[in-house]
Amino acid sequence: MSRKKYDDHPGKSRFNSSLLYLFGNYFMRLxxxxxxxxxxxxxxxxxxxxxxxxxxxxxIPLGLAVVHxxxxxxxxxxxxxxxxxxxxxxxxxxxxxxxxxxRNPEKSKKFxxxxxxxxxxxNAVAMFxxxxxxxxxxxxxxxxxxRFVAGKPSQPLAVNSLGFCYKKGFIRTHVFIRIxxxxxxxxxxxxxxxxxxxxxEMAELSLLTYPYRRPEGKLEPRVRTAxxxxxxxxxxxxxx
Length: 240
Fold this sequence. Notes:
Layout: H1 14-25, E1 32-37, E2 48-52, H2 59-70, E3 75-80, H3 91-94, E4 97-100, H4 109-119, E5 124-127, H5 143-150, E6 157-167, E7 173-179, E8 183-185, H6 191-205, E9 224-225
Parallel strand pairs: 1-7, 2-5, 2-6, 3-4, 3-5
Antiparallel strand pairs: 6-7, 6-8, 8-9
Helix pairs in contact: 1-2, 4-5
């Protein structure tokens, strides 16, 4: 994975990304028993937008442990700008973090453009549509970030939902990380309806309910999901 720098962003560092992966995959196992499902559903090459449920701060290293370790290593993540503060010494930014000002997204336009740029240059980009964490319940999916990053793709864009479910164990907490089937988004689809459907899927993967009403879209939703053969052709399984 080459280290390519961008304006006002140092690029994604293999060293930093590996440290965060090792932290999530080994150190976090002291506190969590990790189960994952659907790793073969995510495309291993080409642009992929990963829409993740946000239950708690631990979602990030635990999710990276699964996605980085079992799917692909070129994962960037749209994150809140507080993780880019000076006292983190740029660590999370060099992991592929793209800082966004959630209160005033207009100030983050250049970083949203960066997220779109790295996505359509063949990388995977993760984002949290709820924009903050909602433990044991679903927050409403916010479409502006999705609309901006996804844009109007000339070719169908692969999108996967990612769910988290935490259950207390005797010693360690069990975390179930589930990757949904690939859906494809194109410029003919209504982004609000597409995101709404992905939020429902995210809720199901997290064993939750999405309580919000479906928006009235202007375009017909034409969601295409990958077949079992194109997603790997194997039955899903849960592994530690």
